[in-house]
Amino acid sequence: MADEAAGAQRDWQQQVEEKLVRLVTELRRQGLRVTAQRLAIARIVFENIKEHPSFMQILEKVRETMPSVSPSTVYNNLQLLEKLGLIKSFDVAGETRYDNIHPHINIVCLDTGKVFDAEDEDESREVVQRIEKLLGGSARVYEVVVYAFCGNEGQQDAAREASGPG
Ligand SMILES: [Zn+2]
Question: How does pLDDT run across 73-83, given as a tens digit for each residue?
């Protein structure tokens, strides 16, 4: 498998399509129904997963195209996607955020509440492997979260442009 080199270059939309194919495969394997609504919700989740969305953010996105969808339907679909191993979740300041499943480093800014992935994937992989080695046996890292302060508390919109003192 050459998915390491290819993975970095693969188009994001292509990755979404692949996840949907995997979802259909998993649903069939488990004897669960493959409905248009389920696939539409999953597509929205996969398309927005890089933003580490909360449940409310996903619900809002889904309602842009399905205004009458109930929160419990969206929630149940999220639970299912997580159970099938297609997404994962972790808590940020008491709020559940959803994320890609591949092991990587997440950086949580405690000033703005923003969550983003460490950009260097090779470096992230190296850290993950080192932690797994440290834990020994068949240890598998689920999620690495780094908490930091960007120093722009209360300036959520300006946080991206500000690059600190200097
Ligand atoms: Zn992440």
Answer: 999 999 999 99
